[in-house]
Amino acid sequence: MEAVVNQLPIGLSIGAVLLLIALGLTFTFGQMGVINMAHGEFIMAGAYTAYLLQGWAGRQAVLVALPVAFAVAGIMGLILERLAIRHFYGRPLDTLLLTWGVSLVLQQLARDLFGAPNVQVQAPTWLQGGMGILPYNRLFIFALAVGSVVAIWGYMNRTSQGRRMQAVMQNRQLAAVSGINTGRVDQRTFFIGSGLAGIAGVALTLIGPVGPALGTYYIVDAFLVVVAGGLGRLGGAVIAAAALGLLNSYAEFWTNASLAKVIVLVVIIGFLQVRPQGLFVLRARALT
Amino acid sequence: MRNPAWRVGAAAAVLLTGLAACGGGSSATEGGSAAAGGGGDTIKVGLLHSLSGTMAISEVTVRDSELLAIEEINKAGGVLGKQLVPVVEDGASDWPTFAEKATKLIAQDKVATVFGGWTSASRKAMLPVFEKRKALLWYPVQYEGLESSPYIFYTGATTNQQIVPGLDYLKEKGKKKLFLVGSDYVFPRTANKIIKAYAAANGMEVLGEEYTPLGHTEYSTLVNKVVQAKPDAVFNTLNGDSNVAFFKQLKSAGVGADTMPVMSVSVAEEEVKGIGVDNIAGHLVAWNYYQTTDNPANAKFVEAFKAKYGKDRVTSDPMEAGYNSVYLWAEAVKKAGSTEVEAVKKAAGGIALERPEGTVTIDGENQHMYKTARIGVIEPDGQIKEVWNSGKPIKPDPYLKTYPWAGGLT
């Protein structure tokens, strides 16, 4: 019984990890319709940023790396958007292939730069230990996920830049004729979306491997959260991440890890049959 | 109202799942230099490991040590007066790719022999290729036994040289209740069958048995199950990057090596670096070789490896077995006077070499090696300290015929 109760916070903490890796995608995939397969590699870039900063920040590297990784991954995203993706707007399947290619290139680049074996990022000493079943590093990730959601919500709803972003998302043409520079908004959206992946990467160094293949382990889950939550919906992503985290945790607890993955996928497919647009639907007169 | 984006999204999610299941790795290939196939004054040998994907973390290091052995042999005059030319291929952590690349190495490059593989799944994929084409594979990693192909030389440990000694050690230390954790493929599942048979015959109890897909990184639920079951020890057959996530999450759940030691059979010096020694210090491993193994051949190997690849690199059991494979094959070729497969096979039996792990002798019957089993504990500096060894090389017994409790296993 105790174990069953323990699965609740475990499920929520899995949800926090899912939310963190999916947040950036709700921007780039959800709001811009760009299927960015290289999102996982931006996560990887964040993780390696923490690794590199260890040189002078030592055990506090994880903390120092948060803003740096945001900038590093954000700039990588910006470069990708400027050089390639902007030529493919409105062609989601082409973008998928393009960004998949980019993700392979980035993985191999990491392998050449840092070597194929995993590297180690030391966790700060104040993140060792934990409360009950939940380790402090999980609570840290939870806080980071909540903090990111609040920051994004504030940005979207309380700043003029954020409102412009929403305007472009809801109706690109109308936003453009209203004098909004949609190209610039796209750049900004991509910068933030990719930057959030960098932050997720830093957080993942606390619980997972840091290696060239890191991105591939999380990209599928990230897409599942965004699709189930409803494209571009922050609230949908939060609820979907929590639900998938709990589903994962209990499915694995009562069966096993392999079967849990199957169960989660079947539930999502079933759910999308009933609500093909996800949990939350963006209400607007026209889209794309 | 209707947004077609969700359709694409759903399709992408499904597609992605498929891609990830395939390993999701890149497929970079390093072609070898083009030399005349077999003839002339060079001999081509194939190296087939995953240089990308989830297994690259481990397999790249074996390729490195095999290249070192080839370089050393060439410096010493080559084999039969001919220089060895390595042809390196990438198995990409994808089992059908291994079969495909093996075919390519044999049929197109016409290599004299292939050194390759890590996971049993990759070996099982390559086996029919080598048997059909009557070519030779040297497989350098410990595995689950119950196999003896006439076209494979197994230079890593079979179960009675690694898993059984590991269990003997746990039994000796009074660890009676075990929890089994492994990756979901042939090696862990077969290894756990053997462990359960051993446990039943030796008064030990298996409290749980859990498998996770290769590349799995979320272990909080599994750790919760292990903690609730309260075993004396965990027997870990996870492979690849999953080990990092498992040990990090076990450590942060407050489970230490003093209360619940984990005995691992796929974690060596190289993996310890990636896991972070903080997270794994004090836990146990079972192998036949450690970087700290004390003998002149090992001192020479470690020095040569560091000179070629850098001071901060480490050597590990599968790397040493890969390194040995090249030397053992070269010795067999010298003895046979030819690289012809049947002649090499016939000559190989009984060859004994002083290797970094000690004396290694080829068993001509099952083509496995006599190897010394060693149990080690991971030290705070990332090295592994030997705490027990079998004293002398153990005769390989891949089918565990000499162990009465293993009667029901196939």
From TrEMBL, chain A:
InterPro entries per UniProt: ABC_transp_permease, ABC_UrtB_bac, BCAA_transport_permease
GO molecular function terms listed in the Swiss-Prot or TrEMBL record: transmembrane transporter activity
One Pfam family from the record: BPD_transp_2
Primary location group: membrane
Membrane-spanning intervals of the chain: 6-27, 34-54, 60-80, 139-156, 190-210, 222-246, 253-274
Compartments it resides in: Cell membrane
UniProt keyword list: Amino-acid transport, Cell membrane, Membrane, Transmembrane, Transmembrane helix, Transport
Gene Ontology terms: biological process: amino acid transport
GO cellular component, one term: plasma membrane
Keyword NAD included in the entry's annotation: no
Membrane topology designation: Multi-pass membrane protein
CDD domains membership: TM_PBP1_LivH_like
Family named by the database record: Belongs to the binding-protein-dependent transport system permease family. LivHM subfamily.
Protein name per its UniProtKB record: Branched-chain amino acid ABC transporter permease
UniProtKB/TrEMBL annotation, chain B:
UniProt-recorded name of the protein: Urea ABC transporter substrate-binding protein
GO biological process terms held by the UniProt record: amino acid transport
Keyword line: Signal
Database matches in SUPFAM superfamilies: Periplasmic binding protein-like I
Highest rank taxon of the organism: Bacteria
Keyword Signal (UniProt): yes
Signal peptide boundaries: 1-23
Keyword Ion transport in annotation: no
Lineage, top ranks: Bacteria, Bacillati, Actinomycetota, Actinomycetes, Streptosporangiales
Pfam families: Peripla_BP_5
CDD domains listed in its UniProt record: PBP1_FmdD-like
Record-linked InterPro entries: ABC_urea-bd_UrtA, Leu_Ile_Val-bd, Peripla_BP_I
